[in-house]
Amino acid sequence: MNRKIIGSILITILVVMGALLYLNSPWNKRGDMTLPEGVKNGEKSILEVGAQEQGERNVKTFDLTAQEKEWEISEGKTVNAWTYNGTVPGEPLRVKEGDFVKVNLKNELNVPVTIHWHGVLLPNKMDGIPGLTQDAVQPGESFTYEFIANDAGTYWYHSHQHSSEQVDKGLYGSLVIEEKEKEYEKDEFFILDEWAVDQDKRDMSNMGGMMQGAMSGDGEADTKQMYDTFTVNGKAGSAIEPLKMEAGETARLRFVNAGYQAHKLVFPEGSMRVIANDAEKVVSEKNTSNVLEIAPGERIDVEFTKQTKETAFIGQEQSIENAEDMMIPVVSENNDQAADQEVVLASGKETAKGISYGSEKPLFEDTPDPDVNYDMDLSMGMNMGEGMSFQINDKTFPETPPIQVKEGDIVKVTLRNTGRMNHPMHLHGHRFQVNSKNGEEFENPIVKDLIHVKPGEEYVIYFKADNAGEWLFHCHDNNHADMGMVTIVDYEGVYSPFELGGEKDNQPN
């Protein structure tokens, strides 16, 4: 028998065994997880740190209800979605810089939920992490989140309870903190995602995809097998609402990737310029790219100018399957029909990414002398008896070694991807400065809270421990987080009074 055929058979057997082991493993049941000792023991509860007072601030109050809904993605394509206020994405939230924000979450689902405010710098107890910063909100119960909208920019909110399922089913929405003086008259928000309209496709194919990715080096083989439909603001193809703009008009377009697959958006030549990344303004006057790559969990803002009165398109680069689903028509008031046009292929074009442009305001003018050094090795493994796993320093959460800090410490983290899958690593409660990639320093450092680490890549980042609490640092491919790729920034002297699992079924991944 041909060696390749034998190899394929062996890989298939391993995949099926690994999937069955995972589905029946103690990790998949997750009922007996315990937090690291430092997280459980301290002088002060996280509920007592980082207090923010309403004072004389303007108060913006929102009510969000987690509820089930049959959601139509496009004509003939519906999914059973979990939503905030009955839509995918959930109700868009807009506030002004300096506002005091109150969000009342009511849970009408039959499972516990939370809300995490992705990228927002807020008190630890408002971060929405079940088992770490709060108990998950039980069916029929409510919880109120309160924080000051201190930093203008693009954010989003999503459940952090069993995120690999709940975000995947639609529990997310947009959050904009507007500048005190608005910079753009027209300001639009677009959330990108992938869906498995054929729900049976989700059950086992991702296991094969992970193994295929490990063998082939395709860092997104798992997501490419799992999903069959791309969406923009919960709609696909001709169901996507057109963006209305007149010739010569300029707008701020805010993009968030809520899915697990990086997306390359192609704009008409000369029509766009990147202006912000993860809520930080960037220096991009010399931007010549018309292709934008957005990693899972990342937020990128662009300045877009409609160049003609004819219909234009912003859409997924067309070389991949399902790309035709992700096209945003840009139409004029008197020409509002989305004509059939093809998005220009991005092949050979320079691509603007999350690390392409330096930030206007770096965290550190010079490379700092760190108080804490942490090497973060990102890898993939298969533990017999426990199934497939994604690891930090050869461990899976909650056994991963925490990043132990004291308030005021300068922390250096070296992220190194020694596996063959992509890992968009997101730090809660802080922003970090990206100083180098693969040993080469950036001329202009980049301030972010998510860095997309592809196979073979190494990044060095720095941040200041200036927000006391217990904070997650995890892969924002939530399947990878669910299978172990999570650690905690653990501040000395504080502790979490909550427990993983337990009667509240706290599942933070």
UniProtKB/TrEMBL annotation:
Compartment annotation: Periplasm
EC class (word): oxidoreductase
Catalytic activity as recorded in UniProt: nitric oxide + Fe(III)-[cytochrome c] + H2O = Fe(II)-[cytochrome c] + nitrite + 2 H(+)
Enzyme Commission no: 1.7.2.1
Cofactors required: Cu(+); Cu(2+); FAD
Principal location class: periplasm
Protein name: Copper-containing nitrite reductase
Organism: Rossellomorea oryzaecorticis
Phylogenetic classification of the source organism: Bacteria, Bacillati, Bacillota, Bacilli, Bacillales
